[in-house]
Amino acid sequence: MGMRTIMTDASEQLVDQVNTALTNQTPLRIQGNNTKFALGRAEAEGEGEAEVISVSQHTGIVKYEPVELILTARAGTTLAEIDQELKQHNQMLACDPRRYEGAATIAGSLASNQSGSARPWAGSLRDHTLGIKLINGHGEHLQFGGQVLKNVAGYDVSRLQAGAMGTLGVITEVSFKVLPKPAASITLVTEISAQSALQEMNRLARSPKPLTGASWVEGQLYLRLQGAHSSVSATAQQWQKESRAHVLNTELAKSFWHKLREHQLDYFQQRSTEVPLWRFSVNPGAEHFLSAENWAFDWAGAQRWLVGDFNAQILREYAAKAGGEVQMIAGGDRHGEVSFVPNTVLKQIHQNVKAALDPQSIFNPGRLYSWL
Question: What is the 3-state secondary structure (H, E, C) of 329-365?
Answer without folding.
Answer: EECCCCCCCCCCCCCHHHHHHHHHHHHHHCCCCCECC
